[in-house]
Amino acid sequence: MNQYTPSKVYGSLMRSPRLQKHPHDMDDENIYPLTDVKLIDRQIQVSAIGEVTHPPDRCKLVIKIVSEKNDVDEAKSSVKRRFDYVLQTLHNHSIKESDIKVYKNMRRVDSMYSLETIIEVMFCEIHKCQTVSNILVEKLDETVNVCLPLFSHAQQTLHNLRQQASLLAIHNAKQKAQEMARLVHQAVGRPLSVREEETKEWNGSNETLEDIESVKSVQQRVANATISISSKVFVTYELKPKIKKKTIS
Q1: Beta strands in the chain (DSSP E)
Q2: Is 249 helix (H, G, I), strand (E, B) or coil?
Q3: Is residue 174 within 8 Å of 180, Cβ to Cβ?
Q4: DSSP helix/strand/coil, 17
Q5: pLDDT by 10-residue block (mean), the chain, 249 residues
Q6: Residue 112 C-alpha from the chain's centroid
Q7: How far apart are CA 178 and CA 176, in angstroms?
Q8: Measured in whole angstroms, how far is the alpha carbon of residue 133 from the centre of its chain?
Q9: pLDDT, tens digit, for every residue of 221-233?
C-alpha cells in the first residue's frame, strides 16, 4: 500500500504594483485601494511536494544446476532430472512459460564434462516466489543452488507511482493555497499555471547491485528494493474576493 508523507509547501500572495493617482485623487497611502486591482493581477503562488513509497512487486529467482561427470551423457542426464523437477514445480505453481528463461553452458574441466543450467524465473507474487524457493531447497541436493531472490518493480507500477506523486503534489498545492487564502479572507480561483519543477526517485538504500546481492536476509532485500518517488510542483492560482453568503431574513 502506498505511503504518503506530508508535503513541503512554500507560497506567496501576489498583486501588481499599486498605481499612483493624481494628487487630488490620492488616498492616505497614495495608492489604489485593493478593490481597484484587476482580478487577473491578484494571484497566489504555491510550491508543494508529493511523495509516494511502494514495496517491490516483482521477484526474480535464479536456480543453478551443475553436474560434472567423466561421460557427457551422464552429465546431461544428471542435470535433466533436476531440471525437469524444477520445471514441474514451477508449473504446479502456475508460472507462465514467458516468465521462465533457461541458459545452458557445457565446458571441460580437466578430463571431466561440466554442464551448468541456469533457470531465471520472474514472479508477480513475492509469497509464491518464497514458497517455490523453499520447496526446491528442501527437495533437491547440493548440485542445485537456489539463490536468494532479487526484487524490483514492474514498469507499469513505476509509471503509476510517478503519476500519483505528481497528482499528490498538485493536490497538496491546492489545499495549502486554500488555507493561505483563507487567512487573508480571500478565495482560490482557477489555476493559471502548473509547472513540475523536480522529480526524485530513490530506493530504500544507496547500496550498489553487488552490495544488494550480498545481503543474506530476504526482509532486508525487500526493504532495499522499496522505492520512493517525489514530485515538486509550482502552481499559480487566481485569487478572488471571498463571496459572503446572503442570509434570508
Answers
A1: 3-4, 10-14, 43-54, 58-69, 100-109, 112-123, 144-146, 150-152, 186-203, 227-241
A2: coil
A3: no
A4: coil
A5: 48 48 45 45 91 96 95 94 97 96 93 95 95 96 94 96 97 96 92 95 72 73 94 95 70
A6: 48
A7: 5
A8: 26
A9: 999 999 999 999 9
Cell numbers representing residue 197 in the block? 519543477
Could you give the CA distance from residue 79 to residue 68 in angstroms, rounded to a whole number? Answer: 10
Task: Tell me the three state secondary structure of residue 64.
Answer: strand
CB 76 within 8 A of CB 46: no
Phi, psi of 206 (to 5 degrees): -100, 20
Closest C-alpha among 46, 49, 17 to residue 30 = 17
Q: CA-CA distances (angstroms) from residue 78 to 54, 122, 203? A: 42, 25, 41
* Residue bearing cell 530513490: 202
pTM (global) more than 0.90:
no
Strand, coil or helix: what is 128?
helix
Query: Cα–Cα distances in Å, from 219 out to 105, 151, 225, 234?
Result: 32, 11, 10, 38
What per-residue string of b and e applies to 87-100 under the rule 16 or more CB within 10 Å gives b? bebbeeeebeeeee
The position carrying cell 507511482 is: 161
Helix (H, G, I), strand (E, B) or coil at 149: coil
